[in-house]
Amino acid sequence: MNIVVFIKQTFDTEAKIVLDASGKIDANGVNLIINPYDEYAIEEGIRLKEKNGGEVTVVSMGGSRAQEAVRTALAMGADKGVLVSDPGLENTDEFGRAQILAKVVADIPHDVILAGRIAIDDGASQIAVRLAEALSIPSVSSVIKLEVAGTQATATREIDGGTELIEVSFPAVFTAQKGLNDPRYPSVAGIMKAKKKPLKSLTLADLGFSAGDLKMVINQYSLPTPRKAGRKIDGEPAQAASELAKLLREEAKVL
After folding, report:
1. What is the pLDDT of residue 231?
2. What stretches of 67-221 adopt beta strand conformation (E)?
3. Which end of the chain is more exposed for a tag (fewer CB within 10 A), N or C?
């Protein structure tokens, strides 16, 4: 079985987002981690390999520091890594990234493609399903259980108020939801082995892309307007209620 896992390197959940003078996110001095939902995808890919045989290839996009995320996945038990690293990726939207990823995956044998349900930095939850569309293969999102038999899979996915059971034939894309498994920690032996595992680096030019091929470019980010401090209304209940209604009507303009 050939398994491809797409992962993203994100800011630590405790990191404070800072923008530089040009409106770009400043990653200097920030702790970067594998997107937590992608860890479930990595673990599921490794478990499928351990049960059915085959190979797990981890694919990521990002700057040079993204190699750290790929090496961690290799230390967990993946076999190969591919990193697409190019300055043109910095301002690419989800559509562009999915097209680039589809080009990478098309050259890798694949039965199962796994990714996290959502990235904790942008919360877009788009790339995996856009990838499936680009490859013209089925996709199942928010999977909490995955069973494989031959060339078919039965996926239990989380939906509002319950679960849904879906059967698909390979190749197919699955996005991992929390609860799918418990990701393992890299062992010391795994970390040492990861240093010798192949990690291929590609640019947009290697894939036949250029910055001009991308349909949308993100020019600038901005932080939300800081919330104003709360106000305390003193006085008797009737007087305070009247003052509150006045403020909601005249200042907040919600009445």
Report:
1. 83
2. 80-84, 112-116, 139-149, 152-159, 162-169, 172-176, 199-202
3. C
